[in-house]
Every structure is written in structure tokens, then in C-alpha cells.
Amino acid sequence: MAESPSPIKFGIIGCADIARKVSRAIILSGNSTLYAVGSRTTEKAARFAKENGFPEWAKVYGSYEAVLEDPEVDAVYVPLPTSLHIKWAVVAAQKKKHLLLEKPVALNVGEFDVILEACESNGVQIMDATMWMHHPRAAKMKEFLLDSSHLFGQLKSVHSCFTFAATKDFLENDIRVKPDLDALGVLGDAGWYCVRSILWAADFTLPKSVLALRGTIFNSAGVIIACSASLQWEDGKTATFHCSFLANLTMDLTAVGTNGTLHLHDFVIPFEEKKASFATSVKSGFTELVTGWDPKPSEHTVMTDLPQEALMVREFSRLVGSIKFGGAKPEKKWPALSRKTQLVLDAVKTSIERGYETVEITG
């Protein structure tokens, strides 16, 4: 599809740390521009704009409303606490602003459905900010999983882990540990990535049931800061994940098929910005004396000129441009993936709340 005749003008509402990374991504994307930023004070918005590469002519506002009222803003990036998503995402959609929404997209699927209805009725595109899916490595890995020569075979299990050792200040003050701001805690943060990676490997077929594993850790305010769960499909596929704010940085993903296995150790954020690797093994066995593998796993490296977050912004802006300049309809794929991810998160949370009962998933 041809590039938009002019760049998509982004407004950012909220000056969270992650907005620094996305501001850079907008600059690098090539088809979007930083047009406005809004915060609770003009001073904070002005400081953010100055520190994050906004052009001198960019608009600086002392409220979120002002960004959404600006008729020149095409799209907004929303890095606000999850508890505020339903309010501001709905208002943005009503103002005909396309939405790049941080994850988790909502506190539960009921809230997200309200956001979706607002987007659909106002003809705006919505995409969540799960950056790793836009790295070219993801497409290469999917080729292996779906290879027509059946190198991988039938998916049997997926295992995902995302942990990082949060600082004392984080565990006391970050919005992700506050029940009134991000009540899903680590499940909504690191757990979102784990669930998305599992669904991605399973070609986004929802599991039949979810069971949270015992051992969930809560902080003093009752917010989850470490948890695990298992997922079960009707055809016998299984998956497990673990997420935590209390363990060393780990971003592992393993997908096991009848003939092959996929491994990677940096699935959320690659070790290096311009290249990313993954390992595959096909019909591996032992050597004659069982002293090694034959054949050995092979490593594959994928290069990229742009970081994955810039590729995400580029794709989102392409979709927005096709709507604005080409009369296209919003792409339904991305909100559908967001909703499925949120459904599984909800099921895990419910399982924990019910004393680790199995929870059936209904779409």
C-alpha cells in the first residue's frame, strides 16, 4: 500500500516512562510525527516534549482533554494507568482519534468491550502496544511453526516466562503495584506478554480452560506481584507461564511440536536493537552413545533497520493513513487479539480469586 500523503499526527496523553520509548519510535517510524503532548500540568508536558525530541512547533497542553480536542491530532498514544483506560480511550474514540493503547488494555474484558464499541461506532483504529509482535523475527518464527514441509509438526505445548527483579522503590511506588491504578499488577504487565506469546504460538485459538497455579504472591495492598498458570486446549495442547516482579530478568519462550522445537530467550525485548535470534531443532535425537544431540539445534538471526517499537508505530500509522486518506475500514485483527489476551488474563485472575479453581473460557 502506498505511503500516506502526509505523516500521521500523534498526540500523547500522559508522560509515563514508556512514553519516552514510544516518542522515539514515532520519530523513527517515517510515517508519523509528534504533534502534541498533554499532562496534568503544562510544565510537565513542556518538560517531556523538550526531553523527548518533540519539534519546536509541537503543541503542549496541561490536560488530556486539550489533546483530544485538537482537530489536527489524528491518533493518540495512551500510556495511562490501566484504571484510566476506559475513560480516556472512550473519549478519544468519540473525538475520532485513533488509539494506540498500552497494555493491559483494560482491567477486564467488560471494560475493553466498552472501548471497542466506542472505536467501532466512531470508525477509529485501535491497536495495543505489544511491540515484539512487530519485529520481523516474529514473522520468521511463525514461518517455522507453520512450515508447509511440517518441520515443526503439530503444536503440543508452550512455555513462557517473563520476570524482572523490581527495585524497592518500584515495589513501593510504581503504578503497577497500586490497586487503584493498575490492579492487575504483574499479571497485567509481564503476564500480558506471556499470555500473548502463548496465544501467538497457538495461532490465537483460545484455550478451553485456565488454572492458576498455587503460590501467587501479593503485596501488602493485595496486588499480584508473582503468579503462574496453566492453559488447556480441547485438542490436548497445554501451556504454562510464570510472571514476577521478584526474580532476575528472564524473557523465555518455548514452543514444542511433534517434530520440532522453537526457543528464544528475549522474546519481549531483544538483547540487541537491530538484530534478534531464535533457535530451532527438528527431529532431534541422541548420538549413538547418548553423549550429545543429533542434529543439534540451529540458530537463526533476523536483522532490522528499525526497532520493533518503531515498526509497531509504522504499521499502526499505515492503518490510520489508509482510513484517513484512502477511505479504508479499521483493521479488526488487532482489537481481536487484544480481546483474546484480556480474556485469558481475566480467567487467570478469576482462578486465583476462587482458590485456584479451573476456569472455563468462553469467547
UniProtKB/TrEMBL annotation:
**One GO molecular-function entry:** nucleotide binding
Record domain Gfo/Idh/MocA-like oxidoreductase N-terminal: where: 8-127
Family annotation (InterPro entries):
Gfo/Idh/MocA-like_OxRdtase_N, GFO_IDH_MocA-like_dom, NAD(P)-bd_dom_sf
- Mark the transmembrane ranges: none
- Any one Pfam family here would be GFO_IDH_MocA_C3
The Swiss-Prot or TrEMBL record describes its family as follows: Belongs to the Gfo/Idh/MocA family.
The identity of this protein, by name, is: Oxidoreductase
